Amino acid sequence: MKTEKDSPTRPDRQDPFHLPRNIGKHLKKCFDAYSSQDRRAPSCVKYLWLYVENASRASDDKRANARALQLDDWLNVVDEAASLGAHCVIVCVQAPLGQYPDLWRLCQWAQTPHDMMVGLYSGGTTFEDVDIEAIKLLDLSRLCLFVDKKYVKTVKKAVAHEGIAVCSADVDHEEHAPPCSMPEDIICVGAEGNLYTCGLVLGNEEFNLGNVFEKPLHAVVEDDSLPRHVPADVPHNGQKSCTACPPLMAERVMRQGAQAGGADQPVG
Ligand code: SF4
What we know:
Layout: H1 18-35, E1 47-53, H2 57-60, H3 71-83, E2 88-93, H4 103-111, E3 117-122, H5 129-136, E4 143-147, H6 152-159, E5 165-168, E6 186-189, E7 194-196, E8 208-211, H7 217-221, H8 246-262
Parallel strand pairs: 1-2, 1-6, 2-3, 3-4, 4-5
Antiparallel strand pairs: 6-7, 7-8
The structure holds iron/sulfur cluster.
Iron/sulfur cluster binds next to loops.
């Protein structure tokens, strides 16, 4: 059983490039730590991708006895993924953030004690004041909000003065398309605990790797018979298919951090 921790304090944010630079540095540190691990160990993963609510519900609800993960279940998933090497988690919420009150505890748990970089993707267009207040209680030096490209300006305007980093979550075809081997580094979990190769194939039974209630994560990542890549013939259903893909988002944040450290303006 997990215990509640004290709320984190807000980091010092004097200079406007402090956050992008710090987030980029933190990710770099995580990558370096990951690189120094024994890569011969088949269980190493880098990224955790959580769909807490709920692009997968339509398909998952068809499964007998499907039940949504509760907070403790999510925390256990984070624990296990961290033990396998995950240093970055992207949490996707399709509904207004207020509909998922456990979200903040989940993000905090990934940051402390697991020292993960947290990306929060909201399919919603707005952040309520109460959401912004909750976000501010997280460690902002290890947090980035991801939103659809068309909303980046609006969201930045709403939260930038609070020191909250914002990036586009869009992934263009030019940026990436199958075949894709990046899922080898990803653990992707739907709201009912179903594990998928990655977010592109969320809800696709062909790429269902099992369920967190049925087997531990290490059994999934060590099972060579499971599909841990996306073949070229898997269609992208529109432009947003790879939205918020963790390795691409981490690369974007690192790039932004590097530019903030060496350029005149941070990029968005
Ligand atoms: S979401 Fe797209 S880019 Fe990301 S791992 Fe899957 S296929 Fe690759």
